[in-house]
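step=encode ok
step=design start
structure_in=
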């Protein structure tokens, strides 16, 4: 009997071990199958070419790793027969491409690798590599931003369809309001950001004057009048964004989500942070007076390189959404020096703040952010967020004082902070 019991126990253990091993194999196979399906269905990988960014270069081994937007990695093998071309950013006509070499390719560059992709879509013998240099993109963006430096940035406060004029309002750090009238002709290039998206200048769609609404955020470039109160526009970019603020009640770093109690509605809101979302920390002191003399860097500017933008803290500050105040605010007739009305603009001030990561936030912090509005009003996406804003809110409440014992609600964030987060972004 004992021998039989021992035999049964031994058989049971072997069976359990076999089942456990089978389950592990099935799980591993299932995970591999999911990865394989994802790689197979990746639209950036076709039978004859791969689109993505260079993630690694191993010249001695003759390999370039290309990572697609969906996260697939393809090994491109190169040899002496591989040819290289370099195209300007945004250019689609290969007639404008210039010959290049392997030494001109760097990690982070955008590439199109042409060749017969393997059946598993994990490798491709590269016949031709077309590259768009990351440094070329940065130079182009710098040139584009310079064009907007003397423009206008703020909230659309009125629309005049008869004269085709827009009035845009922005505030200085100390609360002074400035209104600029923007004249729109048929020659003006008008663009608009799609709803529920992090604003990227390259993704703005052609638009019309009739699509602009009161409350929209706006960036415009063109020729300003001598007194800085009018602008004859050459290009206008708009978007429907909302300024939201509240106290953090919970933080989920796994899903990159924050829950707050909304300052205005007092209701709970879920804030979603994407890789391009930017988080900054407000610093008071000298900045509250409009910055140090001579335009020297503010308290945050010298630290900006140390911070990490983005929801998980992995994106560098230069990778933030270009909506984060890239153009600066209207600063007078030439876009330099003090603004009419006095003081540094909100957008200018924010650009001097250090970027931080989601891990640097904590429950109880008060935040203000520019957000995109989706289908669910209780779930919104953050474009640019600032924490430590209690002092700003106190300033806003103080300037709203209308008389002894009379004060408007301090939750009118759009009229007070509209334009400071740069929802309508630039290159």
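sequence_out=
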């Amino acid at each position: 009997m004992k021998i039989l019991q021992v035999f049964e126990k031994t058989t049971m253990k072997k069976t359990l071990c076999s089942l456990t091993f089978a389950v592990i194999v099935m799980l591993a196979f299932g995970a591999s199958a999911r990865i394989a399906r994802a790689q197979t269905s990746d639209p950036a990988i076709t039978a004859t070419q791969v689109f993505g960014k260079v993630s690694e270069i191993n010249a001695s081994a003759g390999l370039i790793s290309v990572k697609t937007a969906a996260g697939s990695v393809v090994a491109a093998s190169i040899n002496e027969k591989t040819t290289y071309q370099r195209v300007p950013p945004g250019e689609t006509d290969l007639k404008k491409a210039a010959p290049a070499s392997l030494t001109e390719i760097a990690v982070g560059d955008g590439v199109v690798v042409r060749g017969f992709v393997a059946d598993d879509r994990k490798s491709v013998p590269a016949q031709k590599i077309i590259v768009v240099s990351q440094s070329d993109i940065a130079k182009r963006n710098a040139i584009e931003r310079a064009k907007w430096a003397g423009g206008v940035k703020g909230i659309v406060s009125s629309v005049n369809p008869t004269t085709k004029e827009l009035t845009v309002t922005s505030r200085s750090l100390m609360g002074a309001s400035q209104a600029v009238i923007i004249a729109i002709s048929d020659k003006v290039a008008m663009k608009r950001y799609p709803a529920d998206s992090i604003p990227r200048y390259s993704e703005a769609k052609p638009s019309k004057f009739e699509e602009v609404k009161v409350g929209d955020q706006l960036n415009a470039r063109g020729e300003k009048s001598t007194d800085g109160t009018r602008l004859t526009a050459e290009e206008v970019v708009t978007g429907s964004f909302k300024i939201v603020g509240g106290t953090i009640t919970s933080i989920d770093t796994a899903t990159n989500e924050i829950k707050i109690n909304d300052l205005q509605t007092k209701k709970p809101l879920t804030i979603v942070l994407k890789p391009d979302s930017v988080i900054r920390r407000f610093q008071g002191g000298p900045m509250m007076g409009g910055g140090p003399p001579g335009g020297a860097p503010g308290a945050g500017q010298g630290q900006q390189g140390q911070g990490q933008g983005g929801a998980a803290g992995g994106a560098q500050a230069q990778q933030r959404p270009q909506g984060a105040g890239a153009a600066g605010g209207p600063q007078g007739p030439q876009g330099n020096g003090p603004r009419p009305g006095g003081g540094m603009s909100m957008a200018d001030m924010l650009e001097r703040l250090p970027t931080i990561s989601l891990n640097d936030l904590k429950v109880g912090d008060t935040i203000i952010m520019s957000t995109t509005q989706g289908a669910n009003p209780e779930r919104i996406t953050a474009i640019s967020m600032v924490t430590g804003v209690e002092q700003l809110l106190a300033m806003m409440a103080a300037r709203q004082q209308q008389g002894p014992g009379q004060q408007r609600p301090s939750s009118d964030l759009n009229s007070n902070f509209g334009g400071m987060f740069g929802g309508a972004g630039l290159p």
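step=design ok
step=annotate ok -> The first strand starts at residue 49 and ends at 58.
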